[in-house]
Amino acid sequence: MSDPSAENSDVRLQQLREAIDETDSALLNLLQRRKQLAAEVGVVKRSLGQPLYVPERETRLLAARRDEARAVGLSPDLIEDVLRRVIRESYQQQQAADVHLQDKTIVVVGGKER
User: Fold this and answer.
1) Which pTM does this prediction carry?
2) Degrees, nearest 5: CA angle 11-17-23
3) Most CB contacts within 10 A, which of 12, 36, 41, 81?
């Protein structure tokens, strides 16, 4: 005969894991939204002639998110680590975007003529 409390615990564990999976999916959707917004920011910065990297903005953003993390009981260090990685990805995306080639002449040096 099986232990009903163990069965209930197994069911609860499965429910919790499903909730974590749903939360992870929500995080992915939020990261995708952030990626889209960062791409738009890159386009606007280029059109304004502004640099992609603004250290003062990053410093303010990280300080504010660390404070928010503390307020909700999360590790500020964890949040800073995660955000630094997300921010780095945003900069790389902005740098790699073709928007920086708009209105530019591209010259290929050493290419083989066909």
Assistant:
1) 0.73
2) 140
3) 41
